[in-house]
Design brief:
The complex is a heterodimer of chains A (110) and B (113). With 110 residues, chain A is mainly β. Chain A has strands spanning 4-7, 10-13, 19-25, 31-38, 42-51, 54-57, 65-66, 76-78, 87-94, 99-101, 105-109. Helices cover 0% and strands 53% of the residues of chain A. In chain A, strands 2, 4, 5, 6, 9, 10 and 11 form a seven-stranded mixed β-sheet that branches. Chain A has a four-stranded antiparallel β-sheet with strand order 1-3-8-7, with no helix packed on it. In chain A, β4 and β5 (42-51) form a beta hairpin. With 113 residues, chain B is mostly beta strands. The chains are: A mainly beta (110), B mainly beta (113). The A-B interface holds A 4, 31, 33, 35, 40-45, 48, 50, 56, 58, 90, 92, 94, 97-104 and B 6, 9, 32, 34, 36, 41-46, 49, 89, 93, 95, 98-101, 103-106.
Chain lengths: 110, 113
């Protein structure tokens, strides 16, 4: 089954404690991206990757890092989380034009 | 600057009637448009798309209309069903370069039984 998986699905953490949200896709897609969804703001792109070792900033990259060492994996790293990063996060991969989204990770930073 | 706008945060429609969700964009370089549907606790899923060379695309109960001169697209759902209750996002991309997606803010559709 073609899918994008994310882990964890829910995470509560404290300010400043480094965390990683994993993302994996099994569709051999070159393009992957991370979004955050906030009320009234829709889906905003954090980072994207056109291929292995090729990443670039999206619209809201501050406070986040990514890496793309393998085609299937695209982890999102928060080196020092802050409360304004409390949000719902989605990983996505894209074949042609349509994107396939993971189930989401709800992150709360206290 | 919101390049893709969905001005109606919510919409309620009776079962069996037509639902019309609207989306406006400002960037004339966008040449491909998509609609996604999102249920609670799930990721968005692709619904239907349209290229800028067309003005209409149908898929079953779902039809997307594109008016390039007005920079406006709409999603029609006929007939609406309770299972269509979800948040709908429109998205626009430029198919040259990085294919960057710009999403609208979403419209929550509630279909009343």
């Amino acid at each position: 089954e073609a899918q994008v998986t994310q882990n964890p699905r829910y995470l509560i953490t404290v300010t400043g404690k480094k965390l990683t949200v994993t993302c994996s896709q099994n569709m051999n897609h070159e393009y992957m991206s991370w979004y955050r969804q906030d009320p009234g703001l829709g889906l905003r792109q954090i980072y994207y990757s056109m291929n292995v070792e090729v990443t670039d900033k999206g619209d809201v990259p501050e406070g986040y890092k990514v890496s793309r060492k393998e085609k299937r994996n695209f982890p999102l790293i928060l080196e020092s989380p802050s409360p304004n990063q409390t949000s719902l996060y989605f990983c996505a991969s894209r074949g042609s034009y349509e994107q396939y989204f993971g189930p989401g990770t709800r992150l709360t930073v206290t | 600057d919101q390049q893709v706008k969905q001005n109606s945060p919510s919409l309620s429609v009776q079962e069996g009637r037509i639902s019309i969700l609207n989306c406006d964009y400002t960037n004339s370089m966008f040449d491909y448009f998509l609609w996604y549907k999102k249920y609670p606790a799930e990721g968005p899923t692709f619904l239907i798309s349209i290229s800028s060379i067309k003005d209409k695309n149908e898929d079953g109960r779902f039809t997307v209309f594109l008016n390039k001169s007005a920079k406006h697209l709409s999603l029609h759902i006929v007939p609406s069903q309770p299972g269509d209750s979800a948040v709908y996002f429109c998205a626009a991309i430029t198919t040259s370069g990085t294919y960057k997606y710009i999403f609208g803010t979403g419209t929550r559709l509630k279909v009343l039984a």
